[in-house]
Amino acid sequence: MENYTMEGRTYRYYGQEAPLYPFGYGLSYTTFQYRDLVLSPPVLPICANLSVSVVLENTGQQDGEEVVQLYLRWEQSSVPVPRWQLVAFRRVAMPAGRETKLSFQVVAEQRAVWAQDWRLEPGTFTLFAGGQQPSQQTRAPSEVLSTRFTVTGAARPLRGC
After folding, report:
1. In the chain, how many domains are there?
2. Three-state SS annotation for 38-58
3. pLDDT tens digit string along 105-116?
4. CATH code, domain with 70
5. pTM value?
6. How far apart are CA 124 and CA 64, in angstroms?
């Protein structure tokens, strides 16, 4: 095998075609609402980590569990990258009518791209938080919040951080 690209070989690289059962697919006996997606800092140096917080509320009548998922999208990249990359997830048990603030850390390594070695590149990124993949169609309502952040500095090898 000489071609190691993933383009056309996994749903993350299929373009606009959605997988039949994407990560996080499923139904619930309750409903959840996401709000207050906050990134800190919204502009970060090339080697810095990103802190993320989001509020999750069980708006239904039943206790339930939600798999909170964070996805990252590169807006510009020097090499082909996935449409979005899962960077964190957490299963949360939520009593009916309650809410909780969740915190995550997106480390610099999760923004690295492969270009003969692992490299960090500056640019604009979009972070998605929700109970499903971005643009996923499901029978159970679930929302996905998104916000952008910027990475500054010169491109560099990951091992240089």
Report:
1. 1
2. EEECCEEECCCCEEEEEEEEE
3. 999 999 999 988
4. 2.60.40.10
5. 0.82
6. 35
